[in-house]
Design goal:
Radius of gyration: 20 Å
Strand order of the largest sheet: 8-7-6-5-9-10-11
CATH topology of one domain: Alpha-Beta Plaits
Number of strands: 11
Shape: elongated
Order of helices and strands: EHEEHEEHHHHHEHEEHEHEHEH
Low-confidence stretches: none
Number of helices: 12
Distance between the termini: 13 Å
Mean pLDDT: 96
Strand content: 15-25%
Length: about 280
């Protein structure tokens, strides 16, 4: 196995030497800014502890595995591709962000069924002007660090991208056009006479629907599970991650980190491509 070590900052040589010693790695190679490959490494209980203590991300990757081996990357939107939870910011326009954020957090930890949590949150938005959605997009929505670097690298290798979200099409469709994503699916807010009704149109896109869209697009592209990466941060991403050969927890809740193939706790989204450099 190769052991990939990444950080947001310069990694002291002493840290790399310590990890190499623990993992019995044969040599250390730099693969990107603040990212290193330790060749012929072996798992050791001390590696996760040392890395977390020094805010380093790590991943044991099969030797010879490269980003070009994949054909599809599936991404969650809120708190994964972008830095905000859109519904929480919409709620802030209504003066009820704390109430909605509390429900969001419980759902992401897996304590509340996602569909039920979404209905409860959207109901609180009844009467809000549609223009508030555009304000959230214009004033508050930001890509997470490394997003454009990651997408450029995926595009260079012809890897398709699917944005699948329990959030709203108002945002996913704009991001799809802006970033050149291949596919995007989300929930649709009902709007009548320029105001939110507090309802979602059609079936709610929940954890199972995320997984179903992954398998649908995977089949359409004639890919095997091992050619698919799925990345998310909350409990409602676990089912889609289970359908992918590689699951990446991005700055995720503990329940997601423990079930993912890799966890990126400190670096940006470009950490995905560094894993397979």
């Amino acid at each position: 196995m190769n052991l990939i070590i990444q950080s947001l900052h310069d990694i002291p040589a002493s840290h790399l030497d310590r990890i190499a010693s623990l993992s019995l790695a044969s040599r250390i190679e730099q693969v990107a800014t603040h990212a290193y490959r330790l060749r012929e490494a072996k798992p050791h209980d001390g590696v996760p502890m040392f890395c977390y203590e020094h805010q380093l991300d790590y991943g044991f990757v099969r030797a010879g595995q490269h980003i070009s081996d994949f054909g599809l990357v599936v991404m969650d939107m809120d708190s994964t591709l972008i830095s905000i939870e859109c519904i929480d910011e919409i709620a802030d326009m209504q003066g009820i962000k704390p109430q909605v954020s509390e429900i969001t957090e419980a759902a992401m930890r897996g304590e509340i069924d996602f569909a039920e949590s979404l209905r409860r949150r959207v109901a609180l938005l009844e009467g809000l002007e549609e223009s508030a959605l555009q304000r959230v997009y214009d004033e508050r929505l930001q890509l997470n660090p490394g997003a454009e670097l990651m997408l450029a690298e995926l595009n260079k290798h012809g890897i398709k991208t699917l944005l699948v979200s329990g959030g709203f099409t108002f945002f996913t469709e704009r991001l799809k056009a802006r970033l050149g994503l291949d596919f995007a699916h989300a929930n649709t807010l009902e709007i009548v006479d320029g105001r939110l009704t507090g309802q979602v149109l059609g079936d709610i896109l929940d954890a199972q629907a995320k997984a179903d869209w992954l398998t649908h697009i995977r089949g359409e592209l004639e890919l095997r599970p091992e050619q698919v990466i799925a990345m998310g941060d909350g409990a409602n991403d676990l089912k889609m991650m289970a359908e992918a050969g590689t699951g990446i927890a991005y700055h995720a809740k503990p329940i997601v980190r423990t079930q993912a193939t890799f966890a990126l706790n400190f670096v940006g989204l470009n950490g995905l491509v560094n894993l397979f450099a």
